[in-house]
Amino acid sequence: LDFRQASAHLEASLNASGRGWEWLDPRLAQLGLFAIDADLETRGWAQVWTARQLHGRLTTAARQEVLRLELGQPTTIDLARWRLVPERWGEAALSLTARELPLGWLRGFDPAGVFESGAVSGVIDVIPLAEAHVRIAASEPIHVSDLRLRRQGDRPLPLLTITLQPKAEIHDGALQALVEPLTVVSETGLRLD
Predict the structure, then answer these.
(1) How far apart are CA 104 and CA 71, in angstroms?
(2) Residue 129: burial class (beta carbons within 10 Å; 0-12, 13-18, 19+)
(3) Which DSSP state fits 5?
(4) Model-level pTM?
(5) What span, in angstroms and rounded, lies between the C-alpha atoms of 54 and 38?
(6) Which of 43, 143, 185, 186 has the greatest count of CB atoms below 10 A from its CB?
């Protein structure tokens, strides 16, 4: 701590896991293990963080990994200026991978009660390209299977399968987004491309 400079420097390693989520809320009974490993450093009263290592994962109660968060390279996050500064520009700094992540887990947490069933798979990467330029893109198509939507009090809609590959870029505060390709297929035979 340096009180004259109004700054602090903290280095920490974290290894944490949790299970038994139904204790918090019975709707979480299907969740299994949540684990995170991190190696972090902060300077300047927690406004600037440097993450050297970050691994997070979520499994089902049956021990199937359904969500993984990975830091691809050491990255500094400046919260005061909303900037990501990686060790290497143009490479993924953060990846989020879903493998058959059950959308039914959202049931009861969504006030409209929209998600009856479904699972999502895909990979989203956060790629800092320059000081004020970040790309967030699916490095493989996002696939939503067996999606059944229902609003409270209504009959469920037919099952849907959705495949999309979104990409967004934030450059000097301006957002540009594109979803291509996008395919929606219904169990009734309807197909939208």
Answers:
(1) 27
(2) middle
(3) T
(4) 0.82
(5) 4
(6) 143
The pLDDT tens digits along the chain (193 residues) read 566 666 667 777 878 888 887 887 777 777 777 887 877 776 655 677 788 888 888 888 788 888 999 999 988 888 777 788 999 999 999 999 999 998 877 776 766 668 888 999 999 999 999 988 999 999 999 999 999 988 777 888 899 999 999 999 999 889 999 998 999 999 999 999 9
Burial of 99 (0-12, 13-18, 19+ CB in 10 A): middle
Helices (H), the chain: none
Residue with tokens 């995170």: 36
